[in-house]
Each structure stands twice: as structure tokens, then as C-alpha cells.
């Protein structure tokens, strides 16, 4: 790849036709370190602009904290604080003296008197239009007074701190974990939120680019007598940590976990809602974690404190590290596995370094490779050609699919809890699919579909999760959105796609999520296996909902019928009474004689023993009876043998709040101790 060139060589190109003999061309070849590459292309890691960088920094730190607590089966407690730092405070932090503007015209936001006049006139006109619209009851748009301003404007700085109760980090590893791009502990074949060994370093690179300040890490591992403290930044060109301070401090409180602090440029105003949505959705998919989110500003009215309480103590099982499936490997990987294996011969290597290759299959595979292969041959002596042969066979042979045992899906219970907590829907259905396979990697799709609820807009409200990370960006291209919009016939499940308030929650877990880009923002729609599993999981939820919806519709119709019949009771009473009165008069005056039961009724009318009130009561009783009989008939037909049931969820006793909550979609029952 040609990256830039020396000024000399550029001059040469410009001059082009010079007749002077050319000097031998200097080589244009240059190298870049991974840190340099990501610093120059930070958008591919989710650091597109200051606002998005603030969001991604929060994400990366929170996800590391959750991975870390879950790795030691500790119910996560994560505290995240974003502290706004004014320009003066920031300057004093870096030892820079504030300076007043002297040459005003030098600045990008300088406005000439004429331009100011023009702008004010325009704003006044806009205000007039707004006032007019408001008086007509029309929606008014917020006016931006600084619209059209040139330049990047004043930067805003934030100190982001994330503290957890996780496993901490070994003292000596901390510098590389935070100061060397593409280094991490999550490269193994395991379901984790982190994968690339990049996130925390990107936060540091961004802080270096925007504020020049280092990152600070405090960490202690379980039962460790000291807390490691490290202040470092990164040598971008060499991709190595540049350590300012690395020391051991007392750990008198026997704390374990990590606290990471970084000062970056950001934009809280534009990304406030994204960050809060992220935290809310993270709390939904991780109801066994407790989050404390704080935004601290110089203006106290802008402060935000949200505690997302733990809703359950049930943690999904810890994801397990697994071995490669033979259909997911390539030449490079086979070579690496050969270099790293502790097994001596080919038979042992095949048996122990891959899943789904038992002894007899390994023997058959070796037989199939050709006469120069044997079970006892030393695996490290395989030639390049022989490795190609193994790879070819792996691609063509049939292997059992990997099981999903190593995965840790959120679980239907957690998903349901999250949906109820988030949307308070009228009805909800959840489904957990069985493990499927994409390119040798197992994956599980879980889905939840809800109808109704508070703060839910009409139409589809889509919530996506991958390895239990909420995905908030690039929604349009994501497999879940596309499937919900285009491949589900909502009408056939009695759900109105545009009028109903529909919540669609889909969570995918895998040893390898095929994200588009390192920013982990969406899963493409081009993977058939995943698209099919997503569609089927949503459909399963819809099938469950359909029967609930039909029952509700029938109940509503019945209610309607009853109301309609009851509406006629007063008129029917008058009519029946008038007829009976007339008949009773004929009977009494002997104009027309009635006998038996009829005569008895007519006498009771005359004697005022049957009044309008009596008829009204009888008619009402009849409507009730008809309604009950119809309900019974419906219940017999549809096989309903019990009273309707409602799921309820019990929240654990929180030591701070002495109460237990029973939560159901329609009520919360609080037991105070
Ligand atoms: N809060 C933490 N507690 C314990 N270890 C941590 C913590 N934060 C980071 N680490 C360690 O530092 C390593 C590097 O973190 P980083 O965020 O750069 O990458 P990652 O999480 O491995 O992958 P990704 O780039 O996909 O997020 C992690 O693999 C982990 O071992």
C-alpha cells in the first residue's frame, strides 16, 4: 500500500517533464503500527466524532467490566461516571494558562457587524413564524441560533470513570493490556463481549488525540494484598505502552476489580440519549448486574444519576472456552495449532485440538489423507503440502455440528424480565432457539415480541443484542431489522404492523459474532443461517402471541355483545310491560280471557306484583346467562380448563430496600418487611 511520500518525490512528480537527469527514486514503502492505523481510522472502531467517541468509550469500559465480573461468576456491580470538565478546569489540569481573545477576527466564530445584523433579522423572522405556528396549534421545531457556524467550535471535555468488582488484572500485564493495540485476553474461542483487544486502547488513543492526557488504571485481583496503579499513554508509532507510573498500593479493604479513568473530548448534548439508551438496554439484557450511572456537570440541573437495580440473582452460566470446529479453520490456523500443540502425533493432534473428531473419525481421516500420512507421524514434521491436504479434507469432509454447550444465552427468563421492565407491555412472548452453526461457530438466537406498553411508539420498536451487548447504531442494515420489517407477515398473527406498539427483542450469542467492522454495531443481513434463525425465533413468539390475541379479541367481542344487548333492556322492558299491561286489562275486563300460566302473569301485572323493575331484572339476568353460556361454550371449544393465568416475577430482597416485589405485566405487588 502506498502511504504518502517524501516532499522531494512529490516535487519530482509535479515538475514531471524536467530534463535534468533523475535521481534514483527513493522508496515510498513505509510501515504503520496498528496503533497508528487505528488512530488514523478511528471511525472503524466507533470513534467517528467527539460525541460518538464518548459513547464508545463508555461502551468499551462497561463491557470490559461485565466480562471481567462474569469471568469469576461475580454478580456485576458497575459504576460509570462522566464528569464534565470546563475549559478553564481542563487548562489548569494540563497546566495551561487561560487566555482572553485579543485578535477577535482571527477566530472562526467571528461575526462581522453586517453578518450579525443579518442573522438577528433571520432569527426574528423565524421566531415570528414559530409563534404563528404555535398559536395555530402546529408543531414547532427547536430553532438552532448558531446554525451554519463554521469550524469545529469549542471542545468539551469529560472524565470517564468505570469501576467494577471483576477479576482485576495481573500487575505486570496492565501496561500491555491498555497500551498496546491488539492485545487482550479474549482471543480464545469463547463467547465474550470483547474480542479484538482494541476497545480500551482506542479510548486511550482518543484521549491522546483530543486531550493529550494519559489513562489511569487501578486494579486488584481476588485476595491480592495490593492495588496495582498504573498511569500510562501509548507510543502510537511503536505501538507500545509509555508508562508514567506503575506501582503497588495498599489494599486495606480487600477490594477486587478495576477502575479505569480517562479524560477525552466528547459531546454529551448530542449523545446523551444514546448513552442513556445503551445503559438502559444493557440493564435489560443483564438484569443480574447492578449499574450506577452518573453524569456530573458544573450546572447541577444537568446532573443525571440513574441506578439500574439488580432484578435477579440468576446469572447465565459462564461461557466456556471451546476448541475449533474442523470446518471453521484455515491453513494459517492449522499451522498455528500445530506450532502450539503439546500433542506429539497426528492422531492425538486431530483428536485433541478440534471438536467433533473422535478417535475412530481421526483414524478414518488420516486414512483418507493418503499413504504418506500415518496416525503415529510427528505432527510438527508435517510439510506445507501435507497441511494443505489436511485443510482440503477438513473443507470437504462431513463433521457433526458443534453443540451450543459452550455458549451462554441470556435465557428466556432474563429476556422476559427485561422486556417487562423496559416496556411494561400488555402481552409478551419469548423464545429460545436451539444452537445452530455458521462457518463452524455455534450460535443461539433468542427472541421476544411484545405488544402494547408505555413509552413505546406505534409500529416496530427493535432492540438488538449480540453477545449480550446492545446494538444501537446501523439499525437499518441489521439482520434483525430487515427480518422484522420484510420477512414477518405480522398481519397473519393478528398484529397490526403500523398501528400496534410492537417490541421486537432479538439476542444472538456465538463464539464469533460476524459483526460488520470492529465497532460491533450491527450484524449484516447476508448470512443465511443467522437470518433464518432470527426469522424463526420471531415467528415462534408471534405464534404464541396470536393465540393470546385471539382470546383477547373474543373476550372483547363478547363484552361488546353483552353491552349491545344490555343497551336494549330499557326499551325492551317498556315494550314488554306495555303489552302485558294491555293484555292484563283485556283479561280483567273479560274482553279476552287467558288461562293457566299466562292468566297468572296477567293477574300479577294487575296486582302490581310484576312491575317494570321485575322485567328489567329478568332481562338483565338473561343477558348474563347467555353471556356465561357462550363463554362456557367457547372455553370448551378452545380447551381452556383453568382460570386465566398471569406470569409473575419475584425480585430478590435488596439489602438496602427492605422489600420484595412481585412483578406482573399488569401490576406490581410490594411486600414491605
Ligand atoms: N475492567 C477490566 N477488568 C479486567 N480486565 C480488563 C478490564 N478492562 C480491560 N481488561 C483487560 O484488558 C484487555 C484489553 O481490553 P480491550 O478493551 O482493549 O480489548 P478486549 O476487551 O479484549 O476486546 P475488544 O476490543 O473487542 O473490546 C482485555 O482483554 C482484558 O483482559
UniProtKB/TrEMBL annotation:
Write out the GO cellular component annotations.
cytosol; DNA topoisomerase type II (double strand cut, ATP-hydrolyzing) complex; nucleus; small ribosomal subunit
Which parts of the sequence bind ATP? 64, 164, 185-186, 194-201, 520
Q: Could you say which enzyme class this protein belongs to?
A: isomerase
| Reaction(s) this enzyme catalyzes, per UniProt | ATP-dependent breakage, passage and rejoining of double-stranded DNA
Region annotation Disordered: where it falls in the sequence = 1-32
User: Where in the sequence does UniProt note compositional bias of the Polar residues kind?
Assistant: 1-10
Entry EC number(s) = 5.6.2.2
Keywords, comma-separated and alphabetical: ATP-binding, DNA-binding, Isomerase, Nucleotide-binding, Nucleus, Topoisomerase
Entry superkingdom: Eukaryota
Cell compartment(s), UniProt = Nucleus
Show where the DNA topoisomerase VI subunit B transducer domain sits: 402-561
Task: Output one GO BP term.
Answer: DNA topological change
Cited HAMAP family: Top6B
* Protein family according to the UniProt entry: Belongs to the TOP6B family.
Explain the purpose of this protein: Component of the DNA topoisomerase VI involved in chromatin organization and progression of endoreduplication cycles. Relaxes both positive and negative superturns and exhibits a strong decatenase activity. The B subunit binds ATP.
Q: Which NCBIfam families match?
A: PRK04184.1 (NF003218)
Q: What is the protein's name according to its record? A: DNA topoisomerase 6 subunit B
